[in-house]
Known about the structure:
Elements: H1 3-40, E1 45-53, E2 64-70, E3 78-82, E4 91-97, E5 102-112, E6 115-132, E7 138-148, E8 155-162
Antiparallel strand pairs: 1-2, 1-8, 2-3, 3-4, 4-5, 5-6, 6-7, 7-8
Amino acid sequence: MSFSKLFQKTGLLLLTSILSLSFISCEQTESEALESDVVAADMHGSWYVEFLSEGEDIYGFEYQLINTYNTSENNGSSMWIDDKSHTWDFKVNCPINASSKTFSGEALYSNVDDYEVDVTITNGKITEGGTTSLGGYSADQISFDAEFSDDAGTVYQVIGYRHVGYIEDVP
């Protein structure tokens, strides 16, 4: 066998081996990422919430849309809470306990359009089927207390339901 044919066969075998290993490696990494996302997936979503102070809607927000979603770390230990500039202009990376569907954090930094504020979130909980939507459907409930560094001492209650697509649920 000539040297060039031996080199071609050896090179092809080596290339095939490297490609096979890289596909196996990618599949494991992707699978692990999906598993960690599934851990906290029940906590992610779009929520219509009321923003209350001592049970009153003092700012007249009525129901507003906020989102909770996965962080880039995708590790199941934190999630973003983003009010999409509908209430206090905040977006924080909040620690979670995915198994109990709870979340809280102190002095969580937020910078939305150069508006900087620290947010302390306590008593955060997502309750499966815990409330009824505006359209009368059973829905998951989100609730948490929020205190903002530029309004220290005032604790706001944020409570609402998961939006699941029914037009009747949109305020």
